[in-house]
């Protein structure tokens, strides 16, 4: 897989799902519309079906939304992230016991 789906792209997809806008999602994440669009275009080309569809603005406003495939991919990524965190929680706790106490 040439294009990795990591925390940043997943956050962008999640933000598009929440805001209904690539521009708003990019602003929320502190990135330009051009950068956000580039990342979405890269993801859309990497998967068998597009993850995001967008309509141009105008009087009615335009917007963007995750496709059914986009929802499947994002939900799968979030599930993997949660499972990975649960799997290493005990090890992180053990490492924490080996750390020096925080300075006052």
Notes on the protein architecture:
By secondary structure, the protein is mainly alpha-helical. The chain has a single domain (7-97), classed as Arc Repressor Mutant, subunit A (Orthogonal Bundle). The chain has helices spanning 7-19, 22-29, 33-46, 68-97, and strands at 52-55, 63-66. The longest helix is centred in the C-terminal third of the chain and has 30 residues, at 68-97.
Q: What is the CATH class designation?
A: Mainly Alpha
Largest sheet: 2 strands, antiparallel
Helix content: 55-70%
Relevant CATH superfamily: Winged helix-like DNA-binding domain superfamily/Winged helix DNA-binding domain
Instruction: Please give the number of β-strands.
Output: 2
Kindly report the spatial arrangement of strands forming the biggest sheet.
Answer: 1-2
**Termini, distance in Å?**
47 Å
Number of helices: 4
Judged by helices, strands and strand pairing, the structural class is mainly alpha
Low-confidence regions: none
How many structural domains can be distinguished in the coordinates?
Answer: 1
What's the SSE pattern? HHHEEH
Assembly of the depicted chains:
single chain
CATH topology: Arc Repressor Mutant, subunit A
Q: Report the mean per-residue pLDDT as an integer.
A: 91
The Rg value, from CA coordinates, equals 18 Å
Strand content: 5-15%
Supply the CATH architecture.
Answer: Orthogonal Bundle
């Amino acid at each position: 897989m040439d294009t990795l789906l990591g925390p940043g792209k997943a956050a962008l997809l999640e933000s598009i799902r929440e805001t209904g806008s690539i521009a708003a999602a990019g602003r929320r994440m502190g990135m330009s519309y051009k950068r956000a669009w580039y990342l979405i275009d890269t993801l859309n080309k990497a998967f068998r079906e597009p993850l995001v569809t967008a309509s141009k603005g105008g009087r009615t406003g335009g917007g963007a939304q995750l496709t059914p495939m986009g929802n499947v991919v994002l939900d799968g990524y979030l599930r993997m992230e949660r499972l990975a965190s649960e799997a290493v929680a005990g090890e992180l706790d053990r490492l924490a016991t080996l750390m020096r106490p925080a300075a006052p």
